[in-house]
Structures are given as structure tokens and as C-alpha cells.
Amino acid sequence: MTSHSSHSVTAVTLPRLFHPAEIAEALGCSEWWVKEQARQKRIPFTRIGGAYRFTVEHVTEIVVLFEERPTRGPLARDAAPARRPARKERPAGQEVRTKLVARPPRRMQQTAFTVAS
Questions:
Q1: pLDDT (tens digit per residue) in 88-112
Q2: Cβ neighbours, 10 Å, residue 104
Q3: From CA 51, how far away is CA 68, in angstroms rounded?
């Protein structure tokens, strides 16, 4: 029969916890972004001693959360962005021009109101 006292904490394999700076470097973003996402609870994390820490599983989940997929189809030609329709050409001489009209300044409107009273 073995006693629990013979087991030490070092015999237990603990998960590796990463600092936000390490996650930021691995993901190619800023440490501030990682902390802000954790603070807003947009990414998984562990909070130990008031500090954000991340496991390998957390990092994998973060990558999956921010993964973007093509919206149209699996083929490259289907995944190309939709083209905007071409502008209609106007015949010469039919250009639309809007004339801008200046408004009187507010101080002039207030003065006119005061004088008119």
C-alpha cells in the first residue's frame, strides 16, 4: 500500500501556461490586443493570480475562433470577390453638377434673431 505522502508535486505533469506576450508573438499581434480580448471575454484564458495565462488548447481555440472561410465556394474562382457593376456612362453635356450654397454662420443667425426680437 502506497502513501500519498510519497508522491510529490513534481511527479504530476502540469500544463504549460503562456504569458500574453508569448501568445502575441506567436499570433503576430500586440500584447495589448491579447489582453483586451481576454478582458472582453472574447478568447479563452485562465486567470491565475490576477494575470491572464493561456494553455496550448486555449491558443488552438483562439486560432479557430478567428479563422475565416471563403463565403462562396471551395474553388478559387468562386472565392474571388464579387465585382461591382460598371458605372453607366453619361453622354457628353449631361454631367450632373450640384451647386454648393453656403449657410450663414451661427453668430449671424443669432444676431439676426436678437435684432428681430
A1: 676 666 767 788 889 888 887 765 5
A2: 9
A3: 29
Query: Taking the C-alpha atoms of 28, 32, 34 and 38 in order, what is their torsion angle to the nearest 10 degrees?
Result: -170
Q: Is 35 helix (H, G, I), strand (E, B) or coil?
A: helix
Pick the residue with more confidence: 5 or 62?
62
Instruction: Give the orientation angle of helix 20-27 with respect to helix 56-65, to 10 degrees.
Output: 40
Better-predicted residue by pLDDT, 97 or 80: 97
Helix, strand counts (H, E) of the chain: 5, 2
All cell numbers assigned to 73: 465556394
Dist CA 39 CA 109 (whole Å):
49
The C-alpha cell of 48 is what? 491565475
pTM of the model: 0.52
Q: Which residues contact 19 (CB under 8 A, 6 or more apart)?
A: 51, 53, 54
Alpha carbon distance 100, 37 (integer Å): 46
Hunting for cell 513534481 — which residue is that?
10
